[in-house]
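User: Hey, my collaborator sent me this sequence without any context and asked if I could get a structure. I don't really work with proteins. Can you help?
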Amino acid sequence: AVAGFAYAGFVQIRLKARVEAFLNQFENVLRLMASGLRSGLGLQQSLTMVVDESKEPARHEFARVIGQANIGIGIHDALDDLAERVKTNETLMMARVIRINSQTGGDLARVLEQLANTIKERRRMRGKIKSLTAEGRAGAAILAALPIFLGGFILLTQPQMAQGLLHTPAGHIVFIIVAIQEALGIYFLNRILKVNV
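Assistant: No problem. I've predicted the 3D structure and written it out in structure-token form, which is a compact way to encode the shape of the chain:
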């Protein structure tokens, strides 16, 4: 069970890091697409330019979009698939903006530039929120770690109490109650400190 939870946690950390790296590149990706469209390229050619000019993970994700378009999937459906794989508000906005623009017409390059500016402002706001909630997040980490360190201290310094906790039904019940309270505390602290932008 511990191995399963550890693996799931590891995958989530790697996934979050990949999405964060993608979002850090996303503003430049949109500006590249806009400049390609302004220079007379089509949408698919602009995406190819993004693949050529970008680094991982944006290169891989947009290469998949181009690959799907090359085997007959519509470019808008391929972008919707990208928004499904990289589940962020930014990718969803891009996919919807491009689809709506294809139906209504207009200057897609200008729309993508405006979207890039919006994403830049969102990132700036997210950074500001992160700095404002840093103290609360540090307090939450300390509160989460305190029972673990206290339990370890008791196990090392109080052998009789450790025996009671580890080898009696009452001790097992206490462990379960503490674990549930700890998990609930971490969950609610994270919900309190989470601000959606």
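In plain terms: The mean pLDDT is 83. You can pass these tokens on to your collaborator as they are.
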